[in-house]
């Protein structure tokens, strides 16, 4: 049963514009930082770190989940996530074309398909926050399992980015469900284990 609080028109407009601006900023940072050569300076070192963070799919998924979960309705969640990814891809590939006069069409189509999947997934994430039951559990378990799968290599690489993915998964597990009922968490954990098992057998394309 839904219990979200409605927003007025101005708040909704600000949240939609904010989603676009956030996407534009991350997309620009991802491509700009990727063009900075490593010359050993403090600035280039910082840009390499920014590049690793902003080009990693984990940060995109985490932000998308937060945008979806804190939306006034499922359709608005889908719109906000769509605007976020649209802004990110527009600035990333737009800057790349501006600098290199090259557009990787196949790569763009792949990530466009992933973005469409994320838009539909945002509906389940929203349900995971404001509803109760197996469908809501699915909306939480799926991104949590995804973060576990893309972050599991931390246990033998000890890379900070993989650790961050695991932290993202834990944060989503805690933050998304408004219901803290132990039965709901049992459903979430059960589905998380199932998704992790499937993902272990079928490698992710990301």
UniProtKB/TrEMBL annotation:
Name the Pfam families for this protein.
DUF6518
Alphabetically sorted, this entry's keywords are: Membrane, Transmembrane, Transmembrane helix
Q: Which InterPro entries match?
A: DUF6518
Work out whether the entry's keyword set contains Transmembrane helix.
yes
Record has Ligase as a keyword: no
- Lineage top rank: taxon: Bacteria
Q: Where are the transmembrane segments?
A: 12-30, 50-70, 77-95, 107-126, 133-151, 157-176, 188-205
The organism encoding this protein is: Clostridium facile
List the protein's name.
Uncharacterized protein
């Amino acid at each position: 049963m839904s219990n979200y609080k409605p927003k007025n028109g101005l708040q909704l407009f600000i949240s939609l514009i904010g989603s676009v601006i956030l996407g534009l900023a991350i997309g620009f940072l991802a491509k700009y930082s990727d063009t900075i050569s490593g010359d050993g300076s403090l600035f280039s070192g910082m840009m390499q770190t920014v590049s690793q963070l902003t080009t990693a799919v984990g940060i995109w998924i985490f932000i998308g989940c937060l945008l979806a979960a804190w939306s006034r309705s499922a359709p608005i969640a889908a719109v906000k996530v769509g605007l976020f990814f649209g802004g990110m891809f527009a600035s990333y590939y737009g800057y790349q074309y501006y600098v290199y006069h090259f557009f990787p069409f196949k790569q763009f189509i792949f990530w466009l398909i992933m973005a469409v999947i994320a838009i539909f997934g945002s509906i389940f994430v929203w349900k995971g926050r404001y509803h109760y039951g197996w469908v809501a559990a699915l909306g939480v378990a799926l991104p949590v399992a995804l973060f576990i799968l893309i972050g599991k290599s931390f246990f033998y690489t000890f890379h900070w980015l993989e650790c961050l993915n695991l932290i993202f998964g834990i944060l989503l597990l805690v933050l998304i469900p408004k219901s803290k009922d132990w039965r709901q968490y049992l459903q979430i954990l059960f589905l998380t284990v199932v998704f992790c098992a499937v993902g272990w057998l079928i490698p992710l394309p990301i």
